[in-house]
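Working notes for the structural subgroup meeting. M.R. asked for a predicted model of this chain before we commit to crystallization trials. I am recording the input and output together here so anyone reviewing the notebook later can reproduce the run.

Input as submitted:
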Amino acid sequence: MNRLFIAEKPSVAKAIAGALGVTKSTQSYKETKTGDVITWCFGHMFELAEPDFYLSDDVPLRKNGKDKVWRLQDLPIIPQKWEILPKKDCKAQLKVIASLLKRCDQVVNCGDPDREGQLLVDEILEKFGNKKPVLRYWASAQDDASVKKALAALEPNKKYQGMTLAAKGRQRADWLIGMNLTRAYTIAAQRCKVNELFAIGRVQTPTLNLVATRDQEIENFKPVPYYKLAASFSAQGITFEAQLKLPDDTKGLDSSGRLIDLELAKRIGAAVQGAGKGEVSSVVTKEIEQDQPKSLSLADIQLYASSKWGFSASKTLEICQSLYETHKLTTYPRSDSSYLPEVQFNEAKDVLSALSKVNPDLAGLIAQADPSIKSKTWNNAKVTAHHGIIPTKQVTDRAKLSDDEQKVYRLIVERYLAQFFPKCKISQTKLSIKVGSFLFTASGSVVLRQGFKAVIKDDEPDAQAVGKDGGEAKPAGQKLPACKQGDVIPLLKVILTSDKTKAPSRFTEGTLIRAMENIASVVDDPTYKRLLKEGDGIGTSATRAAIIEELKRKKYLALKGKFLIATPLGRKLLQNLPDMVKNPVLTAVFESKLKDIALGKLALKDFEQDYVVRLVKTQVDKSKTAMIK
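Returned structure, recorded in token form:
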């Protein structure tokens, strides 16, 4: 055997095998005509040993006769030598990989192009004591062109060892925090006669805190009344409304510029009504182009499916996984990217052709698509470990899909199709009208070219693109007359309405996943905010749905209709934890150090001891005196 390719998952192995040419296939590997062998993993094949593995044999067992009793005297548990153990359902495949490693001359690490993908294969090689040369395959897509390009550019695997160490750092930090603090605070609760599991995690706990904080904001919210003044004008047979615009320093406005003084609103309204007319002080008209919305990430689909159909995040992931694995109609689903590799642009004609066969009801729209249009979603520089979720060239009977699968598939198809329609072109006009000493403004728009709006509905995630010149994302729809500066136009009536400030919305599973992605928005410190913006938020596209499901399973979160709320148990957990444990800043700090590890600026051992172990020891000590209520 020449080379052994170890892929992260079967679909990657299949793509590589297709490019190399296969002469033999088994349930566990494929052989090529050149003597190469391609085998695969099923994600991480190993997991860190449980705490009981590191505890001495004299620790008493629980009533089940298997697990050891949780004792404060054993904490913190800090492994001196980390042990990884094979997952139960991976043992057979690991045995095959071990056998193939003995026969090959060279190994190729075909993990996903990120930290976890690097570690996933490297830990297998380390566990089996591989001494043979290792190369690294690096591709963000599984189309034939991307695979062949990556195969022609194999590099020494040791170039990426910093990523392996960083992934180990993340893995061990999560273990140390989760295993030790869960035990410490559960023991503290028992000491205070609270018989509950206080499960703590670096991602899980800040996620729970997001929901609980939002719940508190809603409960403590006190609506404040405010008033809006509009004037109705008529010119050239067109009636339209303009809104009062007061100077920012006007007394009677709140900090957000809302008019909260009713008497002032009435006086202005009377004065404006008495004037009976207005003079156009400025007319600004500009044409803007709205870019096609980018392709869809998993979070995009989860957000839309939660809002539109009430799907849970895990259900949406399950549907996307089925469309990918069972029906072969869409690409890899666990993606946090909305961009596509430029090499896939060349496949557009073939994909559109397949779509017309799978979706005969869309044949008219597909016929209008122009595969020469290259939208901004095609951008190699912004593709991460995976690219946006798009349809494949697979042709199958769409009737085989369930109703829910049909809905998600249609969303993905339409978003892809929109890439091959022109930008939407809109003429926007803004009128400024003086009525006495008061200024009113009116906005209107006319669609000059529908473009991708022929495909995309405005209620889709990110459907309202921003014009490249800074135009409004959602231009006002009213029609305005063709006025010019100095025109005097009749005022028909003044419209005074009242409203109240509204509390923030509760989280759905879709909006919570979006908040986990954009966690920087809830952090005030500029340094940590920058670090969180540079990262991928908390959790990953592959784990966020599972984290929410776990919080629900532990009864820390519950569904109220389609909204998530923190349960009394979840709140009790949070109110007894120190801020550092429930604050996403911890992720920002760790992420900064993990980047240093990847770049060789910080040793893994130093990260563990100076940052993680120190934090864990401090929090375990605090738990000893914590009063759980």
